[in-house]
Amino acid sequence: MTRHQISAKSNQHPAIRRSTAVCSALALWVFGISLSWAGPSIADAPIVIQFSHVVTPETAKGKAAMRFKELAESRTGNRVRVEIYPNSQLYKDREELDALRLGAVQMIAPSLSKLASLGGADFEFFDLPFLFKDRAAFRTVVNGPVGLSLLKKLEPSGVRGLAFWDNGFKVFTANRPLQTVGDFKNQRIRVQASRVLLTQMKSLGASVSVSPLTNVYESLKRSQLDGQENSPSNIYTQRLHEVQSNLTVSNHGYLAYAVIVNKPFWDKLPHDVRLTLEGALREATLYEHDIAEQENNRALAQIRASGKVKIYTLSADERNQWRAALTPVYQEARGRISSETFSSVNSLMGTPP
Ligand code: SIN
Fold first, then answer.
1. pLDDT tens digits for 58-89?
2. How many Å lie between the centroid of ligand 1 and the Cα of residue 238?
3. Which domain holds residue 311?
4. Beta-carbon contacts of residue 11 (< 8 Å; ≥ 6 apart)
5. CB burial string 314-350: b at 16+ within 10 A, e below
6. In terms of C-beta density within 10 A (0-12 exposed, 13-18 middle, 19 or more buried), how is residue 196 classed?
7. Which of 4, 75, 90, 228 has its CA 20 to 30 A from that of 222?
8. Residue 304 Cα to ligand 1 middle (Å)
9. Model pTM greater than 0.85?
């Protein structure tokens, strides 16, 4: 599906989408009845998991979703069918959270930044600038008690957290070099909906805009935004490098996801099916962790090869200047994010965040 087709669909008014959904449900119902006359009964119909996400199938998340589908379908002998809707084809960022809670889709994998609206400010902990020195540090944190307690925080919203997926370090793009903190002045930068990220941009002196990923390309193209931060793989697959002249390898923040399901749906699955799906997801998660770094390295090389963007890597001195300017982000976060999260991460990483 082309970007145009995808965005035409995702730009539909929610009411139109809802009535389309109702019509489709009716059509399926009628079709189901005619099937039951013609042959297989509705009892034989597979369990359908609709998995919606906002990035392209070529990203680590997109590929891992596909791996989960293959494993889930083959290991349940097709008792389960996984339908994947990538690139905001069904729902944009905030909408997919509502759709999951309402049971309109059964599985999503939003970024941790976006999960604060469901599970509270502790999810924004992962947005703190220069928090992780490498991927291993991120994985140590999510695979330990902090990860478990975060997933538990989603349950009162009717959502079950099953796994953490990785993307990697974020870089900045803009139509000017972003090298020193002063370069952010008068720049309107898109971030995800997270108060930590808002404070980050204010501390760098930029003005800030929150919008769904799927709108970023058009907003940059029309100069409604000057720049944005994301992983190289998201930048390349959303073609953001085609509408930006500069990219700074700042690795100033981390992008990661939680794979979450509608809890009532998940709890009602037959026990053996649920166990099989959990096994399939464990394997898809290992695969996702294996490929995330290479997808970002490849994307950065492809952006470089496109010749459309000047790429600059921050020096150690510049990183230290950015780090100092970003101190207020930690102060603001300490007022909202639990001290347990700060202290568990401290003991896991061995250095105060
Ligand atoms: C994602 O990677 O799922 C989205 C990130 C973003 O909204 O920038």
1. 999 999 999 999 999 999 999 999 999 999 99
2. 10
3. 171-254+297-349
4. none
5. beeebeeebeebbeebbebbeeebeeebbebbeebbe
6. buried
7. 90
8. 21
9. yes
